[in-house]
Amino acid sequence: MNTPPSFSCSASPVRGVVEAPSFGILGTYPPTRCGLATFSAALADGLAVHGADVSVVRVADGASASGARVIGDLVNDSAASVAAASELLNRSDVAIVQHEYGIYGGPDGDDVVDVIGGLSIPSIVVVHTVLTDPTPHQRSVLEAIAALADQVVVMSQAASRRLCLGFDVDPTKVSTIPHGANVPARLVSTGSPGRPTLLTWGLLGPGKGIERVIDAMVSLHELPNGPRYVVAGRTHPKVLAAEGEAYRNARIDQARHLGVHAAVSFDADYRDVASLTRLAQASAVVVLPYDSTEQVTSGVLVDAIATGRPVVATAFPHAIELLASGAGVVVDHDDPDALAAALHRLLTKPDVAAAMAAEAARLAPAMAWPVVANGYLTLARSLLTDRPALV
């Protein structure tokens, strides 16, 4: 099986060691329920495993902050709060700033540029989205962030290529550190030998592609042990505010119209990490049928592999990259027959599914959060060695 080609923008070696630097993280954070908040919390925990002191400046969303690590909130569209956020982060040795266009104040979240500009400590910016065709202002925001940051971290080779080739950034500043995952102690399927489960999880809304799998269920329903399809996750808060449950209700109506409603269920309960892990391990296949052709980072994809499950995904960049060695199957977005055929094959050929699960289990250990956090720790030590006066 072929592995994806290697591409690295950064060749800067680590030239020394600074023991246990402290980190200030800026981004969304629990109780906010989104993938980036989960990422921030998991990275903080992973750094703490290595003895680092971690504090968090949380992007305010109206909910009260929780956890001893939270030392302040960033209130969007407030110049005073922007300045205060910089000062709070400056109390640590290194700042880690999560970047996503939709979470900060100002046009395209450009308030974060001023936060980074106010830092007197080394900064690592984690870029979660790299667009192929950004607007001029989106481009200028990301390029300004990259110019101010000491290092820019992306989480896939696809993101690294896109950033280095498509934006005016200093390639020596760009590093690739994979997205982390909670790897269970035992990577085994806990599913019953009876009716198999197809699983999609994550915040729900247009673009998730759930309709693709519901369409495929028509032919899969005819199998002797026809699968059930579980869609787990609440509707994305922003989608809920703008459109209510229109997307979820449309998919329920679709399943009813196609005659597969008894085999399709929507689980809107909030699940913690342990509960999601159990749900994934009880599934036969994790399906990621996303509409996006842009997605260079998918935490759900990483978590699926980390639980040792075979994956069927549409051809978004992160899936093409991570599944290249055989942990799953990638299908074209506009090929419903290919999606149905891939699912049919995994459900009817246990040896094929087992081989994919074994490859997922092989990849999983390198995705564990303590391993990934060590990459940030190594990068931080390198930055502090280059700026010894700040230690």
Can you give me a brief rundown of this structure?
The chain is of the alpha/beta class and 391 residues long. Helices cover 40% and strands 15% of the residues. The model is unreliable at 1-18 (pLDDT under 50).
What does this structure look like?
Helix content is 40%, strand content 15%. It is of the alpha/beta class and 391 residues long. The protein has two domains: 23-180 and 368-390, Glycogen Phosphorylase B (Rossmann fold); 197-367, Rossmann fold (3-Layer(aba) Sandwich), CATH 3.40.50.2000. It has a seven-stranded parallel beta sheet, with helices on both faces. A six-stranded parallel beta sheet has the order 10-9-8-11-12-13, sandwiched between helices. Strand 5 (123-127), helix 4 and strand 6 form a beta-alpha-beta unit. It starts with 22 loop residues before the first strand and ends in a 5-residue tail after the last helix. GO terms for molecular function: glycosyltransferase activity. Residues 35-182 form the Glycosyltransferase subfamily 4-like N-terminal domain. Keywords: Glycosyltransferase, Transferase. InterPro entries: Glyco_trans_1 (IPR001296), Glyco_trans_4-like_N (IPR028098).
Give the helices and strands, then pairings:
Elements: E1 23-27, H1 35-49, E2 54-59, E3 70-74, H2 79-89, E4 94-99, H3 111-117, E5 123-127, H4 136-148, E6 151-154, H5 157-166, E7 174-176, E8 197-201, H6 210-220, E9 228-232, H7 237-243, H8 246-258, E10 264-267, H9 273-281, E11 285-288, H10 299-306, E12 311-314, H11 317-322, E13 328-331, H12 336-348, H13 350-363, H14 369-386
Parallel strand pairs: 1-2, 1-4, 2-3, 4-5, 5-6, 6-7, 8-9, 8-11, 9-10, 11-12, 12-13
